[in-house]
Amino acid sequence: MLVLSRFDWFRDPHKVATGCHELGKCPTPWWAGLFLFGYFLGPAILFAAVNVYAWHKWTIRRWTYYTIGIMVLAVALYLLDALA
């Protein structure tokens, strides 16, 4: 997974829309912090929420459907980002 995450699939890694390459050194708007938080932790929070809610309440089949659905959404999120 580490190798695949470092491999640039679709674009030139040196093209940056804002001209700035580092988060800590470049001014960013407040909503960018919320976006990054949701981007990195959103899928994990969704999986945790499903597990907390579904614990001992849902059947295995229903839990599996929701888990697969969230997994597809997470993969689509990161794949669309890689294509953009």
Q: Could you walk me through the main structural features you see in this protein, from its secondary elements to its overall organization?
A:
The chain is mainly alpha-helical and 84 residues long. The chain contains 3 helices and no strands. The radius of gyration is 17 Å and the shape is elongated. The two termini are 21 Å apart. The mean pLDDT is 80.
Summed up, what is this model?
With 84 residues, the chain is mostly helical.
Strand content: under 5%
Would you count the extended β strands for me? Answer: 0
Low-confidence stretches: none
Class inferred from helices and paired strands? mainly alpha
Which range best describes the helical content: under 10%, 10-25%, 25-40%, 40-55%, 55-70% or over 70%? 55-70%
Described by its quaternary structure, the protein is single chain
Q: Any idea how many domains? A: 1
Distance between the termini: 21 Å
What keyword list fits this structure?
3 helices, mainly alpha, 84 residues, elongated
How do the helices and strands line up, and which of them pair or pack?
Layout: H1 2-6, H2 30-54, H3 60-83
